[in-house]
């Protein structure tokens, strides 16, 4: 890391990324030296910062505005502050395409590298919730629309309908992997509530209607996506549309052997079923399933391989159900409502 | 976790819904568990807040498919759903 000003290491430490090889370089891309000095002075007010750094107040405010748009600064109840974790900087800085050209290709490569640098730590944090992980799969609407007993907090259409504000944002995870194997477009992150307002206000998101959100989910369900959100009964942040190859939450589980994905991300209450009589052994389900749950096995009664579900691996996303050309697949509820906790960490 | 992952619905720390639980800056499992404990404690003692931050909560009544369809077919579907949700939140579980 020769040649980098030590101030960026100092700022990386504020994000609890002291030992990171890449965080100082990411910060160097996001903030020039003048802006880095301003960041170091936060939470002091603008006029004090201006005086101390021998700048005029307008320059400081202009820099803070740019840093807010870039996602390095947030305007809190007590004034502007630097974001305080790697995760916050990841979501906010990668989520605004306005600065792509000035940040350059290396900025995105650095984020991909930092994700690999922190696989074990991320998995440890995601599994810390124990029996009720913090993140949960929401099944694809078309896969469960005819199933009786669907709860509003697991029905993506109900979740979207109930929101006062919806914003469409470029998925920060996907943007760190421009050559991702899933091929899913990156403008698929549906923010709700305060998060939506935050991204609209800083020019990183565009307001959308409920109908537009429905149309988007219908469109992207053609891709091998998984809907996911926070694992609680109140959905107040966002609906993610993920793929294991690029998602900051899913990807780490596929890069280590210590934990299974369902130990850190809650399954939905659903599980896919298969009627082997209808199966035409096309293996579409096998290619759609991101978790290795859709498999083929030999059925003696048919004297050939047909589809099979490994219930332990099935996360209940419904991706295999909506694409089965023979309609041999369906969803059933296999977990009680208490599977979804009131608050994160454990049942309320 | 990132900006978009606050259980209280805050977009970032010290945003309006923030209760300073520390979840967004937790770096160890112990800190996550402690932050979750603070959130649960807060929610238990601020049931009104749950309604105001709530969008769709678990609702045993909405589990009744007929009632849900009736609510959805109404011209005021969204309001009706909120009404049902609020009614059930006031009932003991």
Question: What would you note in describing this structure?
Answer:
- The complex is a heterodimer of chains A (348) and B (93).
- Helices cover 36% and strands 16% of the residues of chain A.
- Chain A has 16 helices and 13 strands.
- The relative contact order of chain A is 0.12.
- Chain A has three domains: 6-117, Arc Repressor Mutant, subunit A (Orthogonal Bundle); 130-267, no CATH class; 270-333, Alpha-Beta Plaits (2-Layer Sandwich), CATH 3.30.70.20.
- The model of chain A has no long low-confidence stretch (mean pLDDT 93).
- In chain A, strand 7 and strand 8 (238-242) form a beta hairpin.
- In chain A, the strands form four sheets. Chain A has a seven-stranded mixed sheet with strand order 6-4-5-8-7-3-9, with helices on both faces. Chain A has a two-stranded antiparallel sheet with strand order 1-2.
- By secondary structure, chain A is of the alpha+beta class.
- Chain B is an all-alpha fold.
- Chain B has two domains: 1-53, no CATH class; 55-93, no CATH class.
- Chain B is built from four helices and no strands.
- In chain B, helix 3 (65-73) crosses helix 4 (77-90).
- In chain B, 38% of the residues are buried.
- Chains A and B meet through helix 6, helix 9, helix 11, strand 5 and helix 13 of A and helix 1 and helix 4 of B.
Please specify the SSE layout and strand pairing.
The complex is a heterodimer of chains A (348) and B (93).
Chain A: H1 6-14, H2 23-30, H3 33-41, H4 46-53, H5 57-70, E1 73-76, E2 79-82, H6 86-94, H7 100-103, H8 105-117, H9 119-126, E3 135-138, H10 141-144, H11 156-161, E4 166-169, H12 172-175, E5 189-192, H13 193-201, E6 205-207, H14 210-220, E7 226-230, E8 238-242, E9 265-266, E10 270-274, H15 284-288, E11 294-299, E12 304-309, H16 319-323, E13 329-333
Parallel strand pairs in A: 3-9
Antiparallel strand pairs in A: 1-2, 3-7, 4-5, 4-6, 5-8, 7-8, 10-13, 11-12
Helix pairs in contact in A: 1-2, 1-3, 2-8, 3-5, 4-5
Chain B: H1 29-45, H2 47-53, H3 65-73, H4 77-90
Helix pairs in contact in B: 3-4
